[in-house]
Design a protein that fits this description.
The chain has one domain. It is built from three helices and two strands, in the order ααββα. β1 and β2 form a beta hairpin.
Length: 92
């Protein structure tokens, strides 16, 4: 088998995979899995007291498929909370 034949065979396999990824069911399953992951990660971040959350997910249905999470800060730390952590006195 020549190099050209191998390249042709490989491109055919890639095209087959691309068609598989365009299936409505596969796309829906991927979206559901991504959203479940976002919810789980956000719960862990919340439990750890983080000011960051996953606020968006981009899905790229290519070969290979890709999932990209967007992260944002949800709030500025409260000045009073910072003083407590540092052992500072609170003013009332």
């Amino acid at each position: 088998m020549t190099l050209f034949d191998k390249a042709k065979e490989l491109s055919g396999k890639v095209m087959d995979k691309t068609v598989e990824f365009s299936s409505d069911e596969v796309i829906a399953d991927t979206i559901i899995a991504a959203m479940k992951k976002q919810e789980k990660v956000n719960e862990v971040l919340k439990q750890r007291g983080s000011n960051y959350r996953v606020n968006g997910v981009d899905l790229e249905m290519g070969v290979p498929p890709k999932m990209v999470f967007g992260v944002r800060r949800i709030a500025e730390p409260n000045e009073n909370e910072e003083q407590r952590e540092e052992g500072g006195a609170l003013q009332t």
